[in-house]
């Protein structure tokens, strides 16, 4: 099943509610842009490529939300709703790419029905393209893995972080599909545990061998020679760094120290090559995520309630730590300032 999709009967965006996993598998139906924006903020849907499709479907949803007296009024309304979607999370560049692409697609439409049709078609195309790109990332990335390899991964970069298949986990899936025996070590990924809740759940669904560790065990397992390579995803790749879930940088430094390849798997829509590290806004999230053991019910405190908290959701890893970038256009090796522009050019 796709992580996010359009339900034409109910005229709503449906998504797997990732805040409920692994306790229960539930679909969430978002009938308004505000519902969808809240779902993005609380991470019911998350992961850069999934946010790309969600942003695109969100703009399409705005076109169906109500009746309009004329097409210009409709386009103004849709633009305002697009701003609500764009204000949800600042770091993953894919969200903006998905939103902008649908806004651009409808700009030439001259009547209400064609705006609806074009918006939905474009969103569907973005979702399809995501799956196609992930399969290619998987195909190219699988060549880097040998039969018997153990891959350490961070956060969730699988089906749930994309429309389907996954980026870093897509590489693992493709290698397994080719017949290689691959084992995964998943870091739990504090504070919201995308690794333990989502990565472990989805790999176990597919019968892929996965072992959970705490984030603080990564150095220990590397030193014990239990890891052949690291593969992570990305929320934004700028010309000097990779932004990904907080904790990724620590893993990259540890990998370098232990001589272990550190790969980043991401579609080219995650690249924002005209920017550098200092220009990217890193999302800061609620202190509740750190002080409660289950942020959803906010019952069990695991830190004093009034403690000062710093909770950035992402960190940046300088590209010098990255052994290769795995994209749908192939594996990009350093030097990135020379090789990335060659791949990104249309
Ligand atoms: O806060 P999240 O769960 O949206 O963060 C997601 C990540 O950092 C993923 O590792 C990244 O988006 C790559 S997903 C293919």
What does this structure look like?
It is a single chain. The protein is of the alpha/beta class. The chain folds into two domains: 4-134, Up-down Bundle (Four Helix Bundle (Hemerythrin (Met), subunit A)); 139-344, Translation initiation factor eif-2b, domain 2 (Rossmann fold). 40% of the residues lie in helices and 16% in strands. It has eleven helices and 13 strands. The chain has a seven-stranded mixed β-sheet, with helices on both faces. It has a three-stranded antiparallel β-sheet with strand order 1-2-3. α1 runs antiparallel to α2 (48-64). The longest helix is centred in the middle third of the chain and has 31 residues, at 112-142. The radius of gyration is 20 Å and the shape is globular. 48% of the residues are buried. It binds 5-S-methyl-1-O-phosphono-5-thio-D-ribulose. The site of 5-S-methyl-1-O-phosphono-5-thio-D-ribulose (MRU) has 18 residues, from α2 and β9.
H-E string: EEEHHHHHEHEHEHEEEHEHEEEH
For the largest beta-sheet, the strand count, sense and barrel status come to: 7 strands, mixed
pLDDT averaged residue by residue? 97
Question: Number of DSSP helices?
Answer: 11
Structural class: alpha/beta
The CATH homologous superfamily of the largest domain is termed Translation initiation factor eif-2b, domain 2
Helix content: 25-40%
Percent of sequence in beta strands: 15-25%
Q: Which of globular, elongated, flat, extended, rod-shaped describes the shape? A: globular
- Oligomer state of the chains in this structure: single chain
**Total domain modules:** 2
Low-confidence stretches: none
**CATH first level of the largest domain: which class?**
Alpha Beta
CATH architecture level-2 label of the largest domain: 3-Layer(aba) Sandwich
At the third CATH level, what is the topology name of the largest domain? Rossmann fold
Tally of strands: 13
- Overall radius of gyration: 20 Å
Kindly report the spatial arrangement of strands forming the biggest sheet: 6-5-4-7-10-12-13
Listed once per kind, the bound small molecules are: 5-S-methyl-1-O-phosphono-5-thio-D-ribulose
Distance between the terminal alpha carbons, to the nearest Å? 31 Å
